[in-house]
Amino acid sequence: MVQTLQNFINGTFVTPAGTGTLDIVNPTNGDVVAHAPISVQQDVDAAMAAAKEAFKSWKHVTPGQRQLMLLKLADAIEANSGELVEAQHRNTGQVRSLIASEEIAAGADQLRFFAGAARILEGKSAGEYFEGHTSYVRREPIGVVAQVAPWNYPFLMAIWKIGPALAAGNTVVLKPSDTTPESTLVLARLAGDILPAGVLNVVLGTGKTGAMMVDHKVPGLVSITGSVRAGIAVASGAAKGLKRAHLELGGKAPAIVFKDADIKKSAAAIAEFAFFNAGQDCTAITRVLVEESVHDDVVAAMVEHTRTLRTGSQNDEDNYFGPLNNVNHFNQVTSVVESLPPHCRIETGGHRAGEKGFFFEPTIITGAKQSDSIVQQETFGPVITVQKFSTEQEAVELANDVDYALASSVWTSNHGTAMRLSRDLDFGAVWINTHILLTAEMPHGGFKQSGYGKDLSMYGVEDYTRIKHVMSALDA
């Protein structure tokens, strides 16, 4: 049955003012599963007005009360895991068991972290820094926050957006990706039974809808997880209104493998981290840099393990990863592989998997040069390159020689090597003998064209606050 989706504004689902719709397609088979509205200015205005009105009282809700509501929402998420998994699977084709563990369970856990964080926000202690006067610092919510979430992890990224914003006392207008809205709408419905009306609003639509949110006069901060192109557009739009921006953008993560690493174990782990979620992860390994003397051994071990990582089956539990998200993205990834320069060699994969949907075989490419677009530009699919290096300095130079700076990893048994590279790699995260693992207590965010601002951790919560200095005369 094809569903007709609605916006969630001021605590209820509402019919949008706009008449345009989008087909929501199941990428495992190409079937249309829902029709989503393309929200127009009137819809955005209504959501912003609801969030603005709700903020008047929400900002005075005590941290303890906010914590209790977020904890109740986390409980509701776990209790409705099955519905959330099915809603998301219809839109992404991801393996159901991985949605359940890596997004629903992880999202509930991270929301509980944000609930606790609501109670430990603080400013500097009070003191007399000017004679006869006492100063102190208030850490306050910003107000209404406009947020745009991506399609690669729809539910988890919604949690990363709303969790810190609500914990800090803001209200939210959130737009999920135009291809993956359903799990976010289930989240909104669950939140509607717990949060005051207008605290969380969800507006569906295209990039134009998102631009209306960014340009709107109400939000004090705009946040996006997406491509560099989209991030630049959001930052530019925010700058026009002197709004703060929070950007988590693309990546081109290197995994640097030294000859003293456990070759077979490292190669298997790197392949799994690279191809998880079809490589549709901005922190996923996309470039493997291998010390020259063990290059061939690493490639052989990676190819061997990669051929065990299946995709393309209509029974999702037979797959290690699901399809690419949509036909346009599938065509883009296909084009990248088909247009490789002649000096590149496809060691495995390189083509469609299965007979239905947008599945793509895990692909390993050798022979690429540092200047090739396959090395420099984000593919965002199950495609990785393997390059050689001869010295530690060369490894660092090759790793850093891209415009992205989100994530990286070092594979070695030498503690000194690991420590030097963790210092010298110009990335927001450096993993040692592992990759891609995240925890709510630690910050996630990059440098350069990977954006600015942090998700997760107390740093992420603080991004959704503002600082106020209060001074009082002692003899008044």
Describe what this molecule looks like in 3D.
- The protein has 476 residues and is α/β, with parallel strands linked by helices.
- Helices cover 38% and strands 22% of the residues.
- The protein contains 15 helices and 23 strands.
- It has helices at 41-58, 63-79, 81-92, 96-117, 154-167, 182-192, 207-215, 228-240, 263-275, 295-306, 327-338, 373-376, 392-400, 415-424, 457-462, and strands spanning 3-4, 7-9, 12-14, 21-25, 32-37, 127-130, 133-141, 144-148, 171-175, 200-202, 221-225, 244-248, 253-257, 285-291, 345-348, 363-366, 383-389, 404-405, 407-411, 429-432, 447-448, 451-452, 465-473.
- The strands form six sheets. The chain has a seven-stranded mixed β-sheet, with helices on both faces. A six-stranded mixed β-sheet has the order 10-9-8-11-12-22, sandwiched between helices. A three-stranded mixed β-sheet has the order 1-5-4, with no helix packed on it.
- Helix 3 (81-92) crosses helix 4 and helix 3 (81-92) runs antiparallel to helix 6.
